[in-house]
Specification:
The complex is a heterodimer. By secondary structure, chain A is mainly α. Chain A is built from 14 helices and four strands. Chain A has one domain: Orthogonal Bundle (ABC transporter involved in vitamin B12 uptake, BtuC). Helices cover 74% and strands 2% of the residues of chain A. In chain A, a hairpin with a 2-residue loop joins strand 1 and strand 2. Chain B is α/β, with parallel strands linked by helices. The chains are: A mainly alpha, B alpha/beta.
């Protein structure tokens, strides 16, 4: 093997190991923050007990609930959502070959927001079926319907085209945003909950949400994972991809579906959280290059850590115990951060 | 072998090629020539299975391209476009390895054999030193040679080149075509190349296919077709032909200030008079 190849693998392995350690450490550290002060050792025992380790039976039940069922479930959820958004962003940027693409570009998230808004409007927001809330299900259905429309619109003579897809996504997103506004204006009582939901937050989310999002996120990740190599080749352009034997239409559809599943699962449990899916892949691309197996793995981990700490900030920043929507935190941090990146790496931002 | 029968194809409302019939036997080096916009690239796209014919059929190794998968095609045919621009920061080796994609098993990764093939191709095209560089940071000519290496790594029996060497300097052009000719002689690789450089075509192609106005204008052995009259007529400007001092094959010459002179034939006297003689 070439020296550079080995060096690149080594560097990637090292980065991956460090990131994995940071993720694990962060997951634990984030459980320390909360309204009740619990010493780290106690938090550790409560976590172990929650994870089914018998040696920590002496843990106080209340503390176990606070640490494991409230904090840890939320930490886990924020990580799944962060990972999903970052990976979905990397995939959308790759298949649309557009550095500005993110999980929200092709209207999937607006579809989810519309589905959720409709559920709130119809008063179904708090209902649940089989233990799962109807709200996430409505959001997921909305996301998938939006994807369907965008693909149907973006198809010309049986071919999916990147530009038309992006345009179709913008059209669908704009139209659905208008519908959301319409819902808000029709029912003043639900305005607050719609607004709050759309802004994106993990407040009050727990194991049911995690369990709801997990299968879709896993399915999306699996679809993408099996096609990471094709994603590299797609980045070379449609023509070259076909020339080396990629079944363009099928692969692109599978990847779109995978990324949309990730986005939909994330948005359905957390609302619309911006910037993670846009910035994280760019950051990773700048350090490890564009090869998608590496890009996707590291984007996922960095996305998880980013959103995890954004959520910690969102729930601890205000002194009175009030929570900020985490979407506001990511946008407030992400905007300026992205500006700095643009200025500093003007030449290297891109794909 | 490539067989094209009563082909009609195009984009949108326009038919670029009509009623094209063509047989390219295995092991031939065929040059596709003709003025801008005559349909050279379109023909190569149809041969590569990228553009679906509106009428007629294209068969490669006895199989209809319509019924073949992209993978099946990529194992037999490799294409190099004129400016295979790459904007993503991939390492050059990764780009060449993509040529091994149609040979991978569905769930497996690249094997050491794939890596060997890729590195061989890079060595042959003189790009091995670039292996670890990012393709968007090497020069245009270097990137083009990397893409040519990818096509070679595909281990195809047919190579389709669309102005593949236009961006290369003279020495690189000769180097690439020498390599292609060697592949052709040693492995029987069929080579179909669309080109503007008449003299390069005359040096390397056994056969020339001239395309004009959506159809094949002339098709035959290079030494028969490469005449002053034919070239002048096809390109609509006086072209004179003389003998190559080393190979003895035909070479074309152009006359400054004659763009509007039309293609009725060469100007009187001079080299043009000898130009209609068969070369080679």
């Amino acid at each position: 093997m070439l020296r550079g190849e080995r060096r690149a693998s080594l560097r990637f392995g090292l980065t991956l190991a460090v990131m994995a350690a940071v993720v694990t450490g962060s997951a634990f550290a984030a459980c320390l923050f909360g309204r009740i002060d619990i010493p780290p050792a106690e938090v550790g025992r409560a976590l172990l007990s929650g994870l089914g380790w018998d040696g920590a039976r002496t843990v106080d039940e209340t503390r176990r609930v606070v640490v494991f069922d409230i904090r840890f479930s939320r930490v886990l959820l924020s990580m799944i959502v962060g990972l999903s958004l970052a990976v979905a962003g990397a995939v959308f940027q790759g298949i649309l070959r557009n550095p500005l693409a993110d999980p929200f570009t092709i209207g999937v998230s607006t579809g989810a927001a519309f589905g959720a808004s409709l559920a709130i409007f119809l008063g179904l927001g708090a209902r649940s079926v089989l233990g799962f809330g109807l709200l996430p299900a409505a959001a997921l259905a909305g996301a998938m319907a939006a994807l369907f429309f965008v693909i149907a619109l973006g198809r010309i003579e049986g071919h999916l085209r990147r530009d038309t897809m992006i345009l179709a996504g913008i059209v669908v997103a704009t139209f659905l945003s208008a519908l959301i506004s319409l819902l808000k204006s029709l029912d003043e009582e639900s305005v607050a909950s719609i607004v709050f939901w759309v802004m994106g937050s993990f407040q009050g989310r727990g194991w049911t949400h995690t369990l709801f999002a997990l299968p879709y996120a896993a399915a999306g990740l699996a679809l993408i994972g099996f096609h990471a190599r094709e994603l590299d080749i797609l980045a070379m352009g449609d023509l070259q991809a076909v020339q080396v034997g990629v079944d363009l239409e099928r692969v692109r559809l599978v990847l779109l579906l995978g990324a949309s599943l990730l986005t939909a699962s994330a948005v359905s449990v957390s609302g619309v959280i911006g910037f993670v899916g846009l910035i994280v892949p760019h950051l990773v691309r700048m350090t490890v290059g564009a090869e998608h197996r590496r890009l996707l793995a590291l984007s996922g981990l960095l996305g998880a850590v980013t959103l995890l700490w954004s959520d910690v900030l969102a729930r601890t920043l205000l002194p009175g115990g009030e929570e900020l929507p985490v979407g506001v935190v990511t946008a407030l941090m992400g905007g300026p951060f992205f500006c700095v990146l643009l200025k500093r790496h003007k030449r290297r931002i891109g794909l | 072998m490539i067989e094209v029968t009563s082909l009609r194809c195009g984009y949108g409302a326009v038919d670029v090629l009509r009623d094209v019939n063509l047989r390219i036997p295995a092991g031939e080096v065929a040059g596709v020539l003709g003025p801008n916009g005559s349909g050279k690239t379109t023909l190569l796209h149809v041969l590569a299975g990228i553009l679906t014919p509106r009428e007629g059929r294209v068969r490669v190794s006895g199989r209809d391209l319509d019924e073949s998968s992209a993978r099946w095609r990529a194992r037999r045919m490799a294409s190099v476009a004129q400016n295979a621009a790459v904007t993503f920061p991939f390492r050059c080796l990764s780009v060449v390895l993509m040529g091994r994609y149609p040979h991978l098993s569905r769930w497996g990764g690249y094997t050491t054999q794939d890596l060997d093939r890729a590195m061989d191709a890079m060595e042959q095209t003189g790009t091995l030193a670039l292996a670890d560089r990012l393709i968007n940071e090497v020069s245009g000519g270097e990137a083009q040679r990397v893409v040519i290496a990818r096509a070679l790594a595909q281990a195809p029996s047919v190579l389709l080149l669309d102005e593949a060497t236009s961006s290369l300097d003279v020495a690189r052009k000769i180097q690439v075509f020498d390599l292609l000719l060697e592949k052709n002689r040693a492995e029987g690789t069929t080579i179909v190349c669309a080109m503007h450089d008449l003299n390069l075509a005359a040096l390397y192609c056994d056969r020339l296919i001239f395309i004009k106005d959506g159809g094949i204008a002339l098709d035959g052995p290079t030494h028969e077709l490469f005449t002053s009259r034919n070239l002048s007529r096809i390109y609509g400007t006086p072209v004179m032909v003389s003998q190559h001092p080393v190979t003895g094959g035909p070479q074309a010459h152009f006359v400054p200030g004659s763009a509007g002179a039309g293609g009725s034939g060469p100007p009187h006297g001079g080299v043009g008079a000898r130009g209609d003689r068969e070369g080679g």
